Amino acid sequence: MVPGPWVREMSGPAHSGGPALEKTFRRKVTLANEVGFCFGVKRAINVTSDQLDRGKEVFILGDLVHNKRVTDELEARGLRKTTDLNGESTGTMVIRAHGLPRAQVAEARERGLEIVDATCPIVLRAQEAARTLEKRGCQVVIIGDRNHAEIKGILGVLESPALVIDSLEELREAKRTHRLLRKVGVIFQTTHALELCKEIMNELIFLCKEIQVINTICRPVQNRQDNALDLAEEVDLMIVVGSRTSANTMELAALCRHHNPYTLHIQDADELAVEDFDWAAHVGIASGLSTPEDLVCGVREKIESYDGPQRPEHRPDPARYLHAGAQH
What we know:
- This protein is an alpha/beta fold.
- It has helices spanning 39-53, 68-76, 102-110, 121-135, 149-155, 168-176, 194-204, 219-234, 247-259, 274-277, 293-305, 324-327; strands at residues 6-9, 22-25, 28-31, 58-61, 80-82, 92-95, 114-117, 139-143, 163-165, 183-188, 210-213, 237-241, 263-266, 282-287.
- It has twelve helices and 14 strands.
- A four-stranded parallel sheet has the order 3-14-12-13, with helices on both faces.
- α7 (194-204) links the parallel β10 and β11.
- α4 (121-135) packs parallel to α5 (149-155).
């Protein structure tokens, strides 16, 4: 890790033998290259805001994006969240950024609801890739989190069951129980960690006779991850800002922690205590894809506004940062 800068100022003449050197510490804070909303999240918020601005009765199945601050603000403007379509007969349904299963979209149409699609274009591309592989006669294998809204949406556009794999253990179990067929077509959750995808693929290629792969990883997301990991290796303390309901934020924090054990995941500046960072000379900050940029700036401002000295003796055990944000 690279120590941060400091300035030594003379409090007396250089050769007077007077007062000792006095340190003025300046903590360095570095933001990742890209923070705040990704393109897909920004688009979903703008689409929904536009419908609300038109005075429409707007509702959504599930969360538009995985950030409570964002969803609370939209709900305060009139967005209504529901878990199913029972009783829905009027209004405008916005499809969330992660997409919806085809059956739910069809049901909304049957009910005569207006449908506005805010699905991320890159997620739509992943859905189309899955359908393409299915039409080629492949067993569709999705590397990703089966509980994630995006994966549920992809599963919902297929005619036949797909196999979702999120670890080497799950892959080996699928092979052992004969659920992995000889001809497979692979896609990836768009925001999944490339390192994990590669790890699974490196073993999968030896287990099947024929494999077709369509790379559905979101390149801007991958660039963000790569930059955050590079930054994590350079700093004393790495901070990842974003919701604990956001899979990509949780994953980013875990990846950064692998490169730097001094990685703290917080939702906003209120969860950041002085003792979390006062020991560090250089602090890096990255964010999840659905984290508003002002929350990231708030964290930076809190650190930069602290004028206390560096206290390297306060460097904690890295285990403190596993749950530190939740304790403040």
